[in-house]
Design brief:
The chain contains twelve helices and no strands. By secondary structure, it is an all-alpha fold. Keywords: DNA-binding, Transcription, Transcription regulation. One of its GO terms (molecular function) is DNA-binding transcription factor activity.
């Protein structure tokens, strides 16, 4: 399921994101029990617990003990709500890292924080990056990463591509874990059940697999031995190891780029 941001009324969405206008806040009479923030927090709780597919104005209203119609005074539609949810969750990420530790340590900490963030809120990974939300917390996240990498001394053009690569890498690595968890829940079959069964069948239907695909067979020969602690599902363990190795390679590549640039 892919959700595209920015599908609501552009002016109203941006006003809500940047809080230049708060629908319902200036109404006369008793202080209302609802607000944009209360509604957004409830929507995040729904998505965290049940996934993006379960999100609706009605579901959020039920969580708050209100009707869906009561929410529209504050948030015009589900489209604006998704934008607000996405941007609000990004506020959880740290807005700065200790420059004394160096850019490599800063990027490593950011990547670890982003990995954990995506797995706390896996529905965020379903919000497409093709059309960004353009909210303040989205820019805080970008400002933070650029601020860390600015210490490399690389020029803006090179740094722009490096930042993009890091975002794609961390998001993609976390998505593997998120989808693995969703697969087990949706199919009722765990990684530990699925992989051995399919691998055994592959051996039956392709007994000459190693001869036909020698490079793949060689690569598989380097697979890690089973861990002592198998509480973490197979694919999650593999994704985590790949994340750590891939991040190290990216950081080494940035260092090599810095060296070539002579900065």
């Amino acid at each position: 399921m892919v959700v595209f941001a920015g599908q609501g009324d552009a002016r109203r969405s941006m006003a809500l994101l940047w809080r230049t206008k708060r629908p319902g806040d200036a109404r006369p009479g008793p202080k209302p029990g609802l607000s944009v923030d209360v509604i957004v927090d409830a929507a995040i709780a729904v998505a965290d617990a049940e996934g993006m597919a379960a999100l609706s104005m009605r579901a959020v209203g039920e969580r708050l003990g209100r009707t869906a119609m009561a929410l529209y005074t504050y948030v015009p539609s589900k489209s604006e709500l998704v934008d607000l949810m996405y941007d609000r969750t990004l506020a959880e990420l740290p807005a700065g890292y200790d420059p004394r530790a160096g850019w490599r340590a800063g990027v490593t900490s950011w990547a670890e924080n982003a990995w954990a963030f995506y797995l706390r809120h896996p529905w965020v990974l379903q919000v497409s990056q093709v059309r960004p939300v353009l909210g303040p917390n989205e820019y805080v996240m970008l400002e933070t990463v650029v601020g860390v990498l600015r210490e490399t001394g690389l020029e803006a053009g090179a740094l722009r591509r490096i930042v993009g690569t890091l975002f794609y890498f961390v998001r993609g690595a976390a998505q593997t874990v998120a989808e693995s968890r969703q697969a087990a829940a949706a199919t009722g079959v765990s990684d530990e059940q699925w992989w051995p069964a399919r691998a055994a069948l592959l051996g039956e239907v392709a007994p000459d697999f190693a001869e036909r695909f020698p490079m793949v067979a060689w690569l598989e020969s380097g697979a890690a031995s089973p861990p002592e602690d198998e509480s973490v599902p197979y694919l999650e363990r593999e994704a985590r190891k790949t994340f750590e190795a891939g991040l190290a390679v990216l950081l080494d590549g940035i260092e090599a780029t810095v060296d070539r640039a002579g900065v």
